[in-house]
Amino acid sequence: SFYGELRETKRFNLRDREISGGYYYPLSQTWTLLVEASASPEHNVLPKGSWFGQLQKSFNGGWDVQAGLRRSQYDSASVDLAKLIGERYWGNFRASYTLYLSKLDNAGAAASHNIQLSYYFPGRSYVTLGASKGREVDSLGSGLGTLTTDVSSASLSGRYWLNDDWGLGYEAIVESLGKLYTRKGIRLGLRYAY
Questions:
Q1: Which residues of 12-161 form beta strands (DSSP E)?
Q2: Distance CA 183, CA 40 (A)
Q3: Among 113, 144, 150, 156, fewest CB within 10 Å belongs to which?
Q4: What is the rounded end-to-end Cα distance, in angstroms, of the chain?
Q5: What is the pTM of this model?
């Protein structure tokens, strides 16, 4: 399947637009490939470009493992992000743990952790609770060095299908970047399946 997204974000009184898209392709009954790309014309706070690739392997008993790598390019630096996900499905539930390892060009690396619990309603609708904690390394610009900060977040997200073709996507999130700032956001979307 193919998918795409348009979004607008505002951070530090700077507004960015972004377009992204991806392709999800089953290689076999137990292996899946995912590729994504994004671009932001303004790229004030969002990356000007990003590429992502991920492999997924399914096992018996509802177990699943995924490994992916993302490269994001900003004006002052580029960031590589590796992620490893372990998840399990049982009944109407899904639980997952994700380890993120990020590396800023010419700077240190940082790790973050995410846990999620999802409930799937009859049909294709679902709701997910998530929490994250870790560290983030940011570039302060040319010659100014880097800043390492503790980060955390909590979120509620999901999708509610109105009928076989149309669905609503939603997300409410609170993110804290140490003592620098706390960001709150709500995202609503309309999805069409064909």
A1: 14-26, 31-39, 49-58, 63-73, 78-90, 93-104, 109-120, 126-139, 146-161
A2: 20
A3: 144
A4: 10
A5: 0.78
